[in-house]
Amino acid sequence: MILVTNDDGIDSPGLVALARALTSVEEICVIAPNRNWTAAGHTKTLDRPLRVAEITLPGSRLKAFSSDGSPSDCVALGFLGLAPERPRLVVSGINTGPNMGSDITYSGTVSAAMEGVVSGVPAIAISLADYYQWDFHYAAQFAARLARRVLKSGLERDVLLNVNVPSGRRTDIRGVQVTRLGRREYNDELIRRKDPFGRDYFWIGGGPPGGTGEPGTDLHAVAAGYVSITPVQLDLTNHDLIEHIATWGLKA
Ligand code: MN
Q1: Which CATH architecture describes the domain 2-184+212-246?
Q2: Structure pTM?
């Protein structure tokens, strides 16, 4: 069984396209948030109960669970007993927008995949790397092929695959590159305004993030028209620095 989720919410066409494509791989269980959680990161809800509704995905006959929890809550719900059997794989997406470089630290899409890894199974996060055009057809087909491959070959423990698909038709895609994370540049601006009561409020705004990316990175691959697959590990330790920091001789 494959657990399918996303961070754009249960009514996102990216989720429906993904769920449909994955039914050709094996049995699926869809558990997704009932609202958009984009950029919610790896949120775990501990301060309130979680509600779940059984629904049918829009424009399809696929049954799904809709929850008021975060994307990673949805994955946890599945593993803790909501899914009829223990999932062998988590697939999260298809996100409307790229998740590259340091985006993945904000991404609810990638965090849901991480929750799968925390639960002990391989996971795939898949995003359509465009801010304006949403044709999920090719990305959904690619996700199904990759899911089949991961189920067959397995993945190293504690690893997820972060996939970014350029928008466009299959004939526009130049190939697949396995990449490392690039360096994102954010164009955030602080917007300061007054509310109707005369108090200041702030909004973090600005244009879409940039960053050109060197060859070998996700940013570079997608800009050149390739599907990017980045193997991401849960262990954030910088192993090279362990010995160096130890030489500081810090005293308790
Ligand atoms: Mn999103």
Answers
A1: 3-Layer(aba) Sandwich (3.40)
A2: 0.95
